[in-house]
User: Which sequence fits this backbone?
């Protein structure tokens, strides 16, 4: 692309397995000022690009059920558009764990579009395998496994600014090692060496958002040095990632239960990055899950 990214027309292809939130993401992009078109036959894209409204960013929903669907064709198309002056193509892939997709189809009682003999697992696994090349090619990958529609909206709005300008957006999250590593994370920092509030009876039921827990974790003589070194590393790397054209970076802090130490560290690091001028979103996987269970 010869034109600057601020003047190039942004074209976001939105895809992912059925049930991962593609339609919801398109609605968010439309609300953000994109012209959103779902399930457009690829052969009609040149006519769409030549039509009116070329100043508006464009969001295209790509559905594997489309008879013209081809991962090879889409990858080639992204490459062709990237070489066209004035166009800034991106691929947004909405990922989701297989068991969550199955649960969503069960809850809605919908039949999976690629399932045979009413076996949703067959359809889900076939579609995930079909989309694997696009997942690997994605510019932005959002795992919706543990996101509700409101959290998905925040994620999409974070990656795709309403003004259509590209920037490196940073996602910071906390998690529990007991529940496994979060999906699609670029960097993970282990906080389990810090003093654990869990063993303090009056702090056990609290979390890293509470002042008493924050004070306890930060009282560890290793905390300040750890926070400083992590910040130094990321302030060194973030500009380099942006120069390489990376759209987003996901940073995760983990501890045993995902309730105390990782939450404190994630909160502090996100604030430090925001104060340094970076666009940051933050979520706490285990705390969000607990709120969902209590609702």
Assistant:
């Amino acid at each position: 692309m010869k034109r600057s990214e601020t003047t190039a027309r942004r074209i976001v292809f939105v895809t992912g397995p059925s049930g991962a939130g593609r339609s919801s993401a398109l609605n968010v992009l439309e609300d953000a000022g994109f012209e959103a078109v779902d399930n457009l036959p690829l052969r009609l894209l040149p006519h769409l690009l030549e039509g009116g409204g070329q100043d508006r960013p464009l969001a295209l929903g790509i559905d594997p059920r489309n008879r013209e669907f081809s991962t090879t064709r889409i990858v080639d198309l992204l490459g062709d558009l990237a070489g066209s002056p004035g166009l800034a193509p991106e691929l947004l892939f909405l990922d989701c764990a297989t068991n969550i997709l199955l649960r969503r189809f069960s809850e809605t009682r919908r039949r999976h579009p690629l399932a045979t003999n009413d076996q949703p697992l067959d359809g889900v696994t076939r579609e995930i395998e079909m989309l694997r090349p696009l997942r690997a090619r994605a510019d932005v990958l959002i795992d919706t496994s543990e996101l509700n529609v409101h959290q998905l909206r925040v994620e999409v709005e974070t990656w795709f600014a309403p003004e259509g300008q590209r920037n490196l957006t940073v996602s910071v999250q906390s998690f529990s090692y007991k529940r496994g590593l979060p999906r699609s994370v670029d960097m993970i920092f282990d906080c389990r060496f810090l003093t654990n509030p869990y063993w303090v009876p009056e702090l056990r039921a609290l979390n890293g958002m509470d002042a008493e827990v924050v004070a306890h974790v930060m009282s560890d003589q290793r905390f300040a040095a750890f926070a400083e070194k992590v910040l130094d590393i990321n302030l060194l790397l973030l500009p380099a990632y942006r120069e390489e054209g990376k759209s987003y970076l996901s940073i995760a802090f983990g501890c045993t239960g995902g309730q105390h130490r990782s939450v404190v560290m994630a909160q502090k690091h996100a604030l430090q990055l925001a104060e340094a001028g970076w666009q940051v979103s933050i979520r706490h996987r285990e705390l969000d899950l607990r709120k969902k269970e209590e609702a």
Residues 24 and 150 are 10 Å apart (CA to CA).
